[in-house]
Amino acid sequence: MALGKSTAVVIGSFALGESDRVVTFFSRQHGKIRGVARAARRIKSKFSGALELLTLGELIFFDTGRSELVRVDHFDVLRPFARVREDLERLGQAAWMAECVGRLTAERDPNVAVYGLLLRALKALEAGAPPRRVAVVFGVRLMDALGHRLRVDACVGCGRRDVFGRGPLIVDVEAGGLVCEACANAVPGLLRLGSGSVATLRRLRGLAWDEAVGMRLGSAEDELRQLLDRQVALLIGQPMRTSRFVREIERFSGERG
Ligand SMILES: [Zn+2]
Q1: Cα of 113 to ligand 1 centre, how many Å?
Q2: What value does the mean pLDDT take over residues 221-235?
Q3: Within the chain, how many helices (H) and strands (E) appear?
Q4: CA distances from 11 to 33, 197, 204, 228 (A)
Q5: In terms of residue numbers, what domain contains 172?
């Protein structure tokens, strides 16, 4: 049985049997890892509260070699990110980010860029940056890091570059980028984005993280968030679980405010 060790973030979990928990981590060294934390749901568990969603810790596990699931031996909290979980809007966007990472990466496929991105986003949320903006900046970079960058310089249908005016632009997420009116006519139900949103997307790609998180996105924020939702849903073949949660929180916040 091999011993593994890495800093890791908890990105999901579910109950198993009477008292155990299956936890999904995104680790710096090994990428996504799923493991069983024995007796994690008992009151006197050695994990007591450490395995909460979004917690950063030092993970020690045993690789049995018999299954994809490892045995979680220790998870020592380095940074709990409790402030992110205490606020519904922050929690909603952070849970969406965790789901993106969990569903778009394969097990045992290390990606230090994705790991770093997740940590930067959690730190920004904890420091009080606007949650939806953080999610957009994170999502745009995650798509790049995983090789799913949408093309916005030319029509992905016919390759022409001189066909985009100042009006709304049409995105064919499945085809991988912008399409001109002529190419769009063949495909029903395509997303339309304001040309300002596409310009914002281009700018976000070129900025450093802190600059991007500090930039006001205006109406582009909503449109780019929708675009990301659609792109991720297409990549995983179904709508994301956390997207509905986020919409409900936003509606609730709207009614309150
Ligand atoms: Zn075209």
Answers
A1: 33
A2: 95
A3: 9, 8
A4: 10, 29, 25, 19
A5: 82-257
Give residue 173 CA to ligand 1 midpoint distance, Å.
Answer: 14
Split into its structural domains, the chain has a count of 2
* CATH code assigned at 115: 1.20.1440.120
Task: Give the integer Cα–Cα distance in Å for 116 and 214.
Answer: 18
Instruction: Examine the domain organization and report whether 86 and 59 are in the same domain.
Output: no
Contact between residue 168 and residue 184 where contact means Cβ atoms under 8 Å apart: no
CATH no. for residue 33?
2.40.50.140
Dig out the tokens for 66 from the structure.
């018999």
pLDDT score at 229: 94
Question: Does 125 share its domain with 48?
Answer: no
Average pLDDT over residues 217-231: 95
User: Is 80 exceeded by the pLDDT of residue 253?
Assistant: no
CA of 183 to the centre of ligand 1 (A): 4
Name residue, tokens 């568990």: 45
Instruction: Give the model's pLDDT for residue 167.
Output: 83
